[in-house]
From TrEMBL:
Source lineage: Eukaryota, Fungi, Dikarya, Ascomycota, Pezizomycotina
Family: Belongs to the AB hydrolase superfamily.
Protein name per the record: Alpha/Beta hydrolase protein
Signal sequence annotation: none
Gene Ontology molecular function: any one: carboxylic ester hydrolase activity
Species of the source: Rhypophila decipiens
Pfam name, any one: Abhydrolase_1
GO cellular component: mitochondrion
Disordered: region residues: 226-246
């Protein structure tokens, strides 16, 4: 069982579940990962029966570090469906500045500049993140994930709780749920844009407007457009012989792969909280205008994450962009050292 108490801090309210230990501090400068990924870098995990992919990332270093180096308790930021590391650039810089910790904003598989793979589910995405942590020698990281990234972060924490310090889940919960039909509609519109061979974003927006009336959502989706270099998947093949870009814009994300994965994007790979749980601090931030984390799932959150806190931010599902200051306050309050 868990008891609830409320605390308020301009812009959001926090619901705390019994004792909770807090973490470390941050400030910023962007250092871009220059290594490129390609199919040759895929690492076959024979024991798992599928390949992990090397994740491309941005590294935001604090100007005034409170940690030993970038391996010491960094923050890993995981985006949502159709997102990428660039969506979290501004907030990553702010958190690095405010907490004095290094922030790695990742491109998850089939998103941004990371490689494409036919498998797209939370088990494979969690495996990619675990491989990233291992390959970079990161010690006791904090995981922050929004939506799809939130479920990935939760899956990582439940699979390997000993290597994760704490997690922040943004507007998602450890339950099976139906994904919004909007996403299937988005893919339909994005495919129409690919077929049209547009050369300007305004042309793409005119097509997408038939499928989504919200301009901010259209701008978010159109952020995936790029001018391919001619290698077929939009990531570059890493050998320096790519064909020059054309004027035609295409979506960087593999629409067919993500379209087939949609039916499983609402799933959660762990079903039995009596078998596995993360007994370290966890913060669940939800939008007050979003339906992704209803009150009915709070007991399930408490079973998987018994030391969780809940923070309500006045926003919808896209709360990091809708109310960044309230989000920042909630994260800093949770992660700053206990006085």
């Amino acid at each position: 069982m868990f008891s609830l108490s409320r605390a308020r801090c301009s812009g959001y309210s926090a619901t705390v579940t019994s004792p909770s230990s807090l973490s470390n501090l941050a400030s910023s400068v962007l250092a871009r990962n220059t290594s490129k990924t390609d199919a040759g870098w895929l690492r076959i995990q024979r024991s798992r029966g599928f390949a992990t992919v090397p994740l491309v990332y941005d590294h935001h270093a604090p100007a005034k570090p409170s940690v030993r180096d970038e391996k010491d308790s960094p923050i890993l930021f995981l985006h949502g469906l159709f997102g990428s590391k660039k969506n979290n650039r501004s907030i990553s810089r702010v958190l690095a500045r405010d907490l004095g910790r290094h922030v790695f904003a990742l491109d998850l598989r089939n998103h941004g500049e990371s490689p494409h793979d036919h498998r797209h589910d939370y088990t494979s995405m969690a495996a990619d993140v675990l491989e990233f942590i291992s390959q970079h020698g990161l010690e006791q990281p904090t995981l922050i994930g929004h939506s799809m990234g939130a479920k990935t972060a939760m899956a990582v924490a439940l699979q390997k709780p000993e290597i994760i310090a704490n997690i922040i889940s943004v507007d998602n919960a450890p339950v099976d749920a139906l994904i919004q039909s909007d996403f299937a509609r988005y893919i339909q519109g994005m495919k129409k844009i690919d077929e049209a061979g547009v050369t300007r974003q305004a042309e793409a927006d005119k097509i997408l407007e038939q499928y989504e009336k919200s301009l901010p959502i259209r701008q978010f989706l159109l952020g995936n457009l790029h001018r391919p270099s001619g290698n077929g998947n939009g990531n570059g093949n890493g050998n320096g012989n790519e064909a020059p870009p054309s004027n035609v814009q295409k979506f960087r994300v593999p629409l067919n792969i993500l379209g087939k994965a949609l039916d499983h994007m609402g799933d959660f790979p762990f079903k039995d909280p009596s078998a596995v749980r993360f007994e370290k601090p966890a913060l669940f931030i939800r939008g007050t205008k979003s339906h992704y984390v209803p009150d009915e799932v709070i007991p399930i959150i408490g079973q998987f994450f018994p030391r969780f806190e809940m923070a309500d931010v006045e926003a919808g599902h896209w709360l990091i962009s809708e109310n960044p200051e309230a989000f920042r306050q909630a994260v800093v309050r949770f992660l700053e050292p206990n006085e």
